[in-house]
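A quick aside before the break. I want you to see a complete sequence-to-structure record at least once, exactly as it would be stored in a machine-readable document. Don't worry about memorizing anything.
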Amino acid sequence: MVLLPIYNNVIDYPFYIPNIVLIFLFFTFVRYIFFLEYTFLARLNWLKVIFVLTSIPIIFLIAQEVSVFQNIMDEDGFRPYIAHLHTEEQFSMIKYTKNQFIFFGTAATICAVIFPFRMIISVWRAKNKGTV
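That is the input. The structure line, written in tokens, reads:
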């Protein structure tokens, strides 16, 4: 639903896959940070350790995608992708696209930084207290 305005108005948007991945990572990390005890991951300590180890490359990949998006917005601009729209619609579409990509990129980065700490705490609790 977040990408529907972009899908309907932007021609050849080059950031569909990174945008979908950022949205997916954000919601997945939030789900595991706040509702870990209700997921399948609650009792799988070995998988939590793997997620802790893979979170560092994920943080760098998220930062790289946001940086690439920001560089294209700053250097080339976004107008070639929305040249068929009227001027007012162009401005609103540029603002919407930039704001939602930066929001989900920043939110996914923050959650990706918090996520390994939550997994470490959960593993510690499982070993020492028997809880999640």
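Two observations worth writing down. The chain is about 75% helix and 0% strand. The chain has one domain: 4-11+20-36+44-128. We'll return to this after the break.
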